[in-house]
Amino acid sequence: MNKHFYRIIACSVFFFSPIVQGHAQNSLSPAEQKRQEMMETTMLKETADNLRQNTALSEEEKGYMFRFKMRKMMQERMRQSGESIWGWEPTEWQKTLPNIRVQDGGAIQEYSFTDLINADGYLCPGSARAYKALEVALPLLYKGTTPVKGDFKITHGAALCTSLVYDYFMQGYTDKEHLELDMGIKKKLITIECLSTGKKVTVVFPPSTIRGHDSAAAEAGDVILHAKEGEGMTIHVEKG
């Protein structure tokens, strides 16, 4: 990742910061905002330096990871403000979508559809795929039992919104053994593998070129949520 790339991303941070600050100003004092800005700038510089020195990553992967870090920082700012700058709200039907239930250290965790989508801040094809893959694949891998964090691995392609949802969902298990970004994936698919059995479920979604945080993206995401096997979505099961 060269210096020119870093300057472009840094400019993006400062472009979006005032927007997010406007929503966070009621929860942070001016002094607190200043401290946060300094901390975030330091974090971004350290992230860029660490990625630049990581010879295991390609330039494309380094760029992606830096953009992810920047986007995650924006989302954390938005959560602090108590509202979303994108203004997304789930529909009544979306509110009925099942929670994703997992075990972690003997405790049960439940993630609602709204919780997961809010990790990105808005419903779009990428965040919809992230939820839909969990809804479809985990029951096939753990029939009649609750999935256990640490016993399954998620592999997905380059989509920042998908990465944000899974970074939130896989808290404590975001290493490559449990959550992997595969820049080589070109189709809209997500694979979830049960590590104890080797069984894999790959969910292939209908293509979509729509991006962003607007009504068109939400509508495209809703299409994915309604997709059924053989009707815009295919499911491949590979036994271990």
Task: Tell me what the structure shows.
The protein is an alpha/beta fold. The chain folds into two domains: 3-81, no CATH class; 92-238, 60s Ribosomal Protein L30, Chain: A, CATH 3.30.1330.130. It contains eight helices and eight strands. The strands form two sheets. It has a six-stranded mixed sheet with strand order 4-3-5-6-8-7, covered by helices on one side. Strand 1 and strand 2 (107-111) form a beta hairpin. Helix 6 (125-141) crosses helix 7 (160-169) and helix 6 packs parallel to helix 8. The chain is globular, with a radius of gyration of 18 Å.
Tally of separate domains: 2
Major sheet: arrangement of strands: 4-3-5-6-8-7
Given the helix and strand composition, which structural class is it? alpha/beta
**CATH-level-2 architecture of the largest domain:** 2-Layer Sandwich
Helical content class: 40-55%
Give the overall shape: globular
| Multimerization status | single chain
CATH class of the largest domain: Alpha Beta
